[in-house]
């Protein structure tokens, strides 16, 4: 089947929530407690939040589909006229390592170039080596580290930047 990458639609909110909840839990199992994972999937990945992001003019929200099967997504949030924050890039486990994440990123990069955006920022939990390695592979570089409080837990983030040429 052919891979399609396109703008997310509100009618897909429940399927997006399912992909997010599944991939987030798989990614952060062993890094965060099950309580934190549950709070995030019910709060950050709520239908209301997903729908609001799809409707927002300040958010780029793309989905990857094989046939009608939603298998991945990318979400970028506008910080200012020159910068976007990459908030999410997730692909279901059984479709990882097939270049789908790179294709989601490449499609979003085309949109950002049309908007004359100069850079993309991303923050990754320092124990998420798989993501850090992926972002290095596609051209991001580390610019710093910071800590944040997430539902009462101190987390340590690697800050990375991709300069758009």
TrEMBL record:
InterPro entries: Acyl_CoA_acyltransferase (IPR016181), GNAT_dom (IPR000182), MshD_Acetyltransferase (IPR050276). SUPFAM superfamilies: Acyl-CoA N-acyltransferases (Nat) (SSF55729). Residues 3-165 form the N-acetyltransferase domain. Gene3D superfamilies: 3.40.630.30. This is GNAT family N-acetyltransferase.
């Amino acid at each position: 089947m052919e891979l399609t990458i396109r703008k997310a639609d509100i009618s897909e909110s429940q399927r997006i929530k399912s992909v997010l909840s599944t991939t987030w839990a798989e990614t952060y199992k062993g890094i965060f407690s099950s309580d934190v994972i549950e709070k995030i999937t019910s709060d950050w990945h709520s239908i209301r939040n997903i729908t609001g992001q799809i409707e927002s003019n300040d958010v780029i929200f793309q989905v990857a589909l094989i046939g009608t099967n939603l298998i991945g997504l990318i979400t970028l949030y506008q910080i200012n006229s020159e910068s976007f924050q990459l908030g999410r890039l997730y692909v279901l486990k059984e479709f990882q390592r097939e270049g789908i994440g790179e294709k989601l990123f490449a499609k979003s990069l085309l949109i950002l170039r049309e908007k004359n955006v100069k850079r993309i920022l991303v923050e990754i939990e320092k124990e998420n080596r798989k993501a850090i390695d992926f972002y290095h592979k596609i051209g991001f570089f580390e610019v710093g580290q910071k800590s944040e409080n997430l539902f009462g837990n101190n987390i340590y983030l690697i800050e990375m930047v991709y300069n758009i040429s």
